[in-house]
Specification:
alpha+beta; 16 strands; 6-stranded antiparallel sheet; 16 helices; 5-stranded antiparallel sheet
Length: about 575
């Protein structure tokens, strides 16, 4: 339904509403003097002016200005009653300068004094001197002096929206019955204009939240970085809720909810903060319930250090299909206005849509990962069943040719080719094992750490050591053994750089090794073509390697290297699996 179609009874573009408004205005004017009748054109012009435009706050500004001109008042204001009906959610003024407003400070809350009385008992009030009224509670500091006062309730669709106040009739005069009748008629038209503006504002607000939901869904399903997609959720929530920050929280490993994506002026301050599992807020969110907080700084349920800097907050579960994925928080600054019922409803719907998009994106990524895994399995099978078998057959043919050859040079050359084929087969098998590993193993697996150490050692060495993996290294080697193996590799490469003067280093990690006592183990071999270990040289590094291996039930030994005639050193470090 468009805004134009959603008109309340009494809309001036609706003939029936126009007739009703005109009838009410005519009844108000019947029997009055010619003085009031003479001001009817001014009243009609004021009514036309009030009905111009659809933006709510500008409509309230226009009503105040028009009412002041109509009643010849110096000051005018509209107090908008809050959802609870016992205070003011907004207070729009006319005649008070920006400097005066800044000196006065906080706007009235409508819970005491004359304004509070008119909220509790909405009726027209006409006072010669408001300071003498028993309901008057005094002006705040720097408030301009006011004496004459006129107040009229403003109704929208039969319900009290707020009150229209006028003060200080020009020339020190007092408001009279004529002014009261004129302002009453204007308040009727103001109610119609406010109703239209509220409908228009609600439609625009819904449109913004829908656009935000579309943006989030598009970002999540684009298949990009997951963290960036969550940041889009936080950014859209912050913008749409007009909040100081937008935060996405996901379940933490140690329990509770962790802030994983933030849109704020200083996001680093919030990122990584964990709401502990014992917090009542966490329990309600994980149960799929929304939590609305009037003031985060003073609410006992808000236990994090961040709460002290925020005021009204919405904490919404990201749940869809009976599954809670996390939560969305949109805190406003301290002293900011509370979230309206409409904002809460729209934000809750946005969170549900974001959760659905998250689940769809997760399912899409699972499908993409499954396709990748299936492709990797196919490649691994092809490498094993076709490539390795052909290489193995080629190696056997070369070995047969080597045995039949009587020329030493040919036998030596064929032997080297066979050795290279063996190395190639081992490297292909290492690639096969890597293809068969899961996604969680690769980033922090032993292979990755070994390669990192080799790349780091390449800088001081001036060349990159060769490397080879045998067997499913990441799958078989435990965390403790892996840490000690990396330490042994680092020590060995450091010794090679400082003492060996090597031009070639070969690193082999074999997860299929069999130890001397028959146990399955992992074997690290680091061989170089350097000067070897001199007689009487320091052995502290070798002793460290030996102690590390023995602490795990393994051994560490040294032997000839890969240089000519066994030159250099080979360090073999072993530990059981």
């Amino acid at each position: 339904m468009s805004v134009e179609d959603a008109r309340e009874p009494g809309d001036r573009d609706d003939p029936r509403g126009l007739l009703e408004a005109a009838t009410q205005a005519t009844r108000s004017l019947q029997g009055l003097s010619t003085e009031l009748t003479a001001r009817v054109p001014q009243l009609l012009e004021a009514m036309r002016s009030v009905g111009t435009g659809l933006e709510l706050h500008s409509t309230l500004d226009r009503i105040c200005e028009t009412a002041a001109e109509l009643a010849d008042a110096r000051y005018a204001a509209i107090g908008v009653i809050d959802e609870e009906g016992d205070g003011l959610s907004d207070f729009v003024t006319y005649g008070v300068t920006e400097d005066q407003a800044a000196l006065i400070g906080r706007l009235p809350d409508g819970r005491k004094g004359l304004l509070g009385a008119l909220i509790q008992h909405p009726e027209s009030v006409l006072l010669d001197d408001l300071t003498t009224d028993p309901r008057f509670a005094g002006f705040p500091a720097h408030h301009p002096p006011m004496r004459s006062f006129l107040g009229v309730p403003v109704r929208v669709q039969g319900e009290i929206f707020g009150n229209l106040y006028l003060a200080e009739k020009s020339g020190g005069a007092e408001f009279n019955d004529y002014d009261l009748h004129m302002v009453r008629v204007l308040a009727t038209e103001a109610g119609i204009a406010i109703g239209n503006a509220r409908l228009y504002e609600a439609a625009r607000q819904r449109e913004r939240w829908i656009d935000g939901s579309v943006a989030v869904t598009t970002a999540l399903l684009a298949g990009g970085d997951a963290d960036k997609a969550l940041t889009v959720v936080a950014e859209q929530a912050r913008r749409l809720a007009d909040s100081a920050a937008g935060m996405v929280l996901l379940p933490a490993e140690e329990g509770g909810l962790e802030i994983v994506a933030v849109s704020a002026d200083d996001p680093a301050e919030s990122l990584g903060v964990v709401i502990p599992p014992e917090s009542p807020v966490v329990g309600r969110l994980l149960d799929g319930e929304a939590v609305f907080v009037a003031d985060s700084a003073s609410d006992q349920r808000m236990s994090t250090r961040l709460a002290k800097q925020y005021g009204p907050s919405m904490l919404l579960p990201l749940h869809s299909g009976g599954r809670v994925l996390g939560a969305l928080a949109t805190p406003r600054a301290r002293g900011a206005k509370l979230f309206t019922e409409a904002e809460r409803t729209l934000a809750t719907q946005f969170a549900s849509q974001a959760a659905l998009a998250l689940m769809m994106a997760e399912a899409q990524r699972d499908r993409e990962r499954l396709a990748v895994y299936e492709d990797r399995d196919r490649i691994a099978r092809d490498l094993h069943d076709l490539v390795i078998q052909r290489l193995f057959a080629t190696g056997m043919m070369l070995e047969s040719a080597q045995r039949r050859s009587v020329v030493p040079e040919v036998r030596s050359g064929v032997g080297k080719a066979v050795d290279e084929l063996d190395v190639t087969i081992q490297e292909i098998r290492t690639a096969i094992f890597a293809l068969q590993q899961g996604p969680a193993e690769a980033p922090s697996g032993l292979r990755t750490r070994v390669l990192r150490e080799i790349n780091m050692a390449a800088v001081p060495l001036g060349f990159k050591p060769a490397h080879r993996f045998v067997g499913p290294v990441d799958a078989l080697v435990g965390e403790l053994t892996g840490k000690n193996l990396i330490a042994a590799l680092r020590e060995t490469l450091s010794n090679a750089f400082r003492h060996a003067q090597a031009s070639r280093i070969e690193v082999v990690v074999d997860a299929t090794a069999e130890l001397a006592d028959g146990r399955h183990g992992v074997r690290l071999s680091v061989a170089d073509d350097g000067v070897g270990i001199p007689e009487g040289g320091r052995r502290s590094g070798l002793r460290n390697l030996k102690r590390r291996a023995e602490s795990l039930g393994g051994t560490s030994e040294c032997g000839p290297g890969i240089g000519p005639d066994g030159g250099g050193t080979t360090v073999v470090w072993e530990a059981p699996l």
